[in-house]
Amino acid sequence: MSTLDGIDLRILRLLSENARRPYSEIGERVDLSAPAVSDRVSKLQDHGIIRRFTLDIDRSQLREGTPVLATLSMAPGAVEGVRDALSGVEGVENVFTTAGSRVVLTAHAPTTDVGGWLFEHVDPEAVRDLDVELLTGSDRTARIGGEAAFSVSCVLCENEVGADGVSRRIDGELKQFCCSSCEQLYVEKYETLAEGAD
């Protein structure tokens, strides 16, 4: 799968509206059988287009902390580590990184001392500045635009994988290559590294 066709995009749009929509209902809308829809969804998952099915909770209906938007301006090289650390913290809902070395997150902080709570999980020395705002509402939209396109990059050289690309499962994970030469080089490097790890 190096391109998405119109049916794939329609399936993505229908799932983005309601991820629990039955495949039989999706099939009626895109003129496919439920098993054919299931196969396409499985391929979209295998290729990493659908990463997971999530639950959108209206947290205003629950009593669980203070809803905040926090922006952390980071020291050079600290963005990825802080993002990873905060992604696993209970109460943190979304973590974003920017090209300007910032980590932005939404959370339901268990305390009004949001800075103290965040610094329990990240090194304060890595943070240059912290801005916290109280959230009064949020709305999440995961719609697929009409002009969406799909582009796979080769895991070795990062060139675009065209129609003549190669797919291969390595340790259960699907890898995409632009050509058989890249596939061979990647497999050789992978096997060398795997032997060195033993």
From TrEMBL:
<protein>
    <submittedName>
        <fullName>Lrp/AsnC family transcriptional regulator</fullName>
    </submittedName>
</protein>
<dbReference type="InterPro" id="IPR036388">
    <property type="entry name" value="WH-like_DNA-bd_sf"/>
</dbReference>
<dbReference type="Pfam" id="PF24273">
    <property type="entry name" value="TRASH_HVO_1752_C"/>
</dbReference>
<dbReference type="InterPro" id="IPR011991">
    <property type="entry name" value="ArsR-like_HTH"/>
</dbReference>
<keyword id="KW-0238">DNA-binding</keyword>
<dbReference type="InterPro" id="IPR019888">
    <property type="entry name" value="Tscrpt_reg_AsnC-like"/>
</dbReference>
<dbReference type="InterPro" id="IPR036390">
    <property type="entry name" value="WH_DNA-bd_sf"/>
</dbReference>
<keyword id="KW-0805">Transcription regulation</keyword>
<dbReference type="InterPro" id="IPR050684">
    <property type="entry name" value="HTH-Siroheme_Decarb"/>
</dbReference>
<dbReference type="InterPro" id="IPR000485">
    <property type="entry name" value="AsnC-type_HTH_dom"/>
</dbReference>
<feature type="domain" description="HTH asnC-type">
    <location>
        <begin position="4"/>
        <end position="67"/>
    </location>
</feature>
<keyword id="KW-0804">Transcription</keyword>
<dbReference type="InterPro" id="IPR056526">
    <property type="entry name" value="TRASH_HVO_1752"/>
</dbReference>
<dbReference type="Pfam" id="PF13404">
    <property type="entry name" value="HTH_AsnC-type"/>
</dbReference>
<dbReference type="GO" id="GO:0003677">
    <property type="term" value="F:DNA binding"/>
</dbReference>
